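Listing S7. Sequence submitted for prediction.
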Amino acid sequence: MKAAVVGVEDKVDDLLVVLDKDIEHVQESLSRLNELRSLVIKRDEAALSSLLERIRVESDAYTANELKRRSIRRELALALGCDFELMTLSRLETSLPEEKKAQVNQRKAKLKSLTKELKMEHSRTALLLSECVRFNALLLRSIIDLGKTGTLIYDANGAASRQSHTAFVNTQL
């Protein structure tokens, strides 16, 4: 029985290392979202391409941590006689001594707050990108519609005039 408890505690130590990597990954994701928004606003295409490539490489590397977490979760579920789907950090905490319980709870709380912040920053980034799309579509529509006959335009003095038979952009194929 004592060997089983030691095995569980060793797995919990491994899990804590994986959770620390998860925390680091979420913090890096927050940083990347801020950088992404900044580069979109600056319209720095070269830096955006570099950032997106870096995100892709880091995402591929992070997959190993996800697989390790899943493996540890499976082993802990088996050791504690719990269904894999039911093995959560909260469930694990109920089976641990106070010291390990506090460590798991600390990581869980940190991940929860970071995840909440990540969701909020993701929403902000999505909103910025959707506004960019809307603005670009509006700008493109106004350029293309500028050449339509009978379009009302204003000159620098504010005088209105109708444009006729001149196209800013030729839309014929």
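Caption to Listing S7: primary sequence and predicted structure tokens for the chain studied. The chain has a mean pLDDT of 85. The CA atoms of residues 39 and 156 lie 33 Å apart.
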